[in-house]
Amino acid sequence: MEPTVFHIQKGNLVKMKDPGAFGRGDCYLVDAFPKLYIWVGPNSSVDEKFLAAAEAVFKDTALKGHADIDHIDGGQEPEEFKALFDDFRLTDEDTAGILKKVQLATHEYKLWRVHREGDDTFFAEVPVEKSSLKSDDVFVLDTWEDIFVWRGTGASAREKFDGTMIARRYDAERVGVQEIELIEEGQEPEEFLKAFE
After folding, report:
1. Taking CA atoms, which of 37, 48, 150, 168 is between 20 and 30 Å from 143?
2. Is residue 127 part of a domain?
C-alpha cells in the first residue's frame, strides 16, 4: 500500500493523486505511518521548507508523538523511501511559494491572513485595508520597518501560534532588522493604524 503524500501548495497541504512524482522545486509530507517523511526539493523556497517541517510536527502532535520523522533532501532518497512507491520519479515541477522576495525599491506593505479550516492552516495575501481585518483570524502586516501580528478576539490559540511562526519565517526572508510586534484586537498602536491610511 502506497503512503499518503501531501504537496505544500501556497501554504496548504494538498493530497497528491500521483504519489510517486516529486517536483524539484517543491516540498512534500509523506505519511507512511509510523514514519513521516519531509521531502525537500533542491529548488524549493524557504517558506515551503518551513511549512513542510511545521506540518510534520503538527501531524506528529496529532499522532501524540508516535510518528518517526525523517528529513529527505531531494535527489538523495534512501532505497527504503523509493521502495514505498510503484513509480518513484523526480520532475521539474515548481509551485509558487507564498513568500515572494520583497523588492527593496518598492517598500510596499503586505497583509497576510492566517486562518484554520478543520485541521489545516491557510495563509493568504489580502488587501491592506482595515476592512480586511476579521476578529476570528490572525493577520500579519509587513510595513517594511516592522512586522505586526494582529490577533483577533475570536482567533484560536493555534491561529495565534501559526501567525507568529509565519511572521518569524517572513522576517527570515527579508533583508535588514525588523521587529515582530504582537497586537491584540482593540489595543492597536498608532503606527499599526497608520499603515491602513
Report:
1. 48
2. yes
